[in-house]
């Protein structure tokens, strides 16, 4: 039985910009960086994986872990779980950094979501857990 999501991945051509955005601006704890291939961050009980798609489509070398090639084109989506006060603080941080909030609204069940973009164009959302009737 599936117990939850352990990892979530998005793709970014510029790993330096991704590291700065997710680490310094959003405040996620960096777990691992492997050159220009990927950077991983702790995100609550899970891990956010940010891969360079130009690197991950390459088959693994003989001395690498046997992870199959993968990748994506176009913007992806990740939703971060936050309470209302944390969303307010995130809006302030994003505004100060000149990051546009594309949408800020309440769902029919009263949960709040904000949407914005990372430097690679991925659609990011911060939402209250009650969006999915999780408390």
Give the strand line-up of the largest sheet: 1-4-3-2
Would you give the CATH topology of the largest domain?
Answer: 2,3-Dihydroxybiphenyl 1,2-Dioxygenase, domain 1
Q: How many distinct beta strands?
A: 8
Q: What is the typical, i.e. mean, pLDDT?
A: 95
**Helix/strand/pairing class, anyone?**
alpha/beta
Strand content: 25-35%
Silhouette:
globular
The CATH level-2 architecture of the largest domain is identified as Roll
Helicity range of the residues? 10-25%
Number of structural domains? 2
**CATH class assignment of the largest domain:** Alpha Beta
Low-confidence stretches: none
N/C terminus separation: 22 Å
Number of helices: 3
User: Can you write the helix and strand succession as a string?
Assistant: EHEEEHEHEEE
Main pleated-sheet profile: 4 strands, mixed
Q: What is the radius of gyration?
A: 16 Å
What does this structure look like?
With 135 residues, the chain is an alpha/beta fold. It folds into two domains: 1-59, 2,3-Dihydroxybiphenyl 1,2-Dioxygenase, domain 1; 75-135, 2,3-Dihydroxybiphenyl 1,2-Dioxygenase, domain 1, CATH 3.10.180. It is built from three helices and eight strands, in the order βαβββαβαβββ. The protein has helices at 15-25, 53-56, 84-96; strands spanning 7-11, 29-34, 38-43, 46-51, 77-81, 103-106, 112-117, 123-127. The chain has a four-stranded mixed β-sheet with strand order 1-4-3-2. A hairpin with a 3-residue loop joins strand 2 (29-34) and strand 3 (38-43).
Mind sketching the topology for me?
Blueprint: E1 7-11, H1 15-25, E2 29-34, E3 38-43, E4 46-51, H2 53-56, E5 77-81, H3 84-96, E6 103-106, E7 112-117, E8 123-127
Parallel strand pairs: 1-4, 5-8
Antiparallel strand pairs: 2-3, 3-4, 6-7, 7-8
């Amino acid at each position: 039985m599936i117990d939850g999501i352990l990892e979530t991945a998005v793709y970014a051509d510029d790993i330096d910009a991704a590291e700065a955005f997710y680490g310094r601006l959003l405040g996620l704890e960096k777990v691992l960086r492997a050159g220009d291939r990927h950077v991983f961050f702790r995100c609550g009980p899970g891990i956010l994986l940010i891969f360079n798609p130009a690197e991950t489509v390459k088959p693994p070398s003989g001395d690498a872990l046997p992870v199959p090639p993968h990748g994506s084109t176009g913007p992806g989506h990740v939703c971060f779980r936050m309470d209302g006060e944390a969303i307010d603080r995130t809006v302030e941080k994003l505004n100060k950094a000149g990051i546009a909030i594309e949408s800020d609204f309440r769902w029919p069940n009263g949960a709040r979501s904000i949407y914005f973009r990372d430097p690679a164009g991925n659609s990011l959302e911060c939402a209250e857990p009650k969006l999915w009737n999780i408390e």
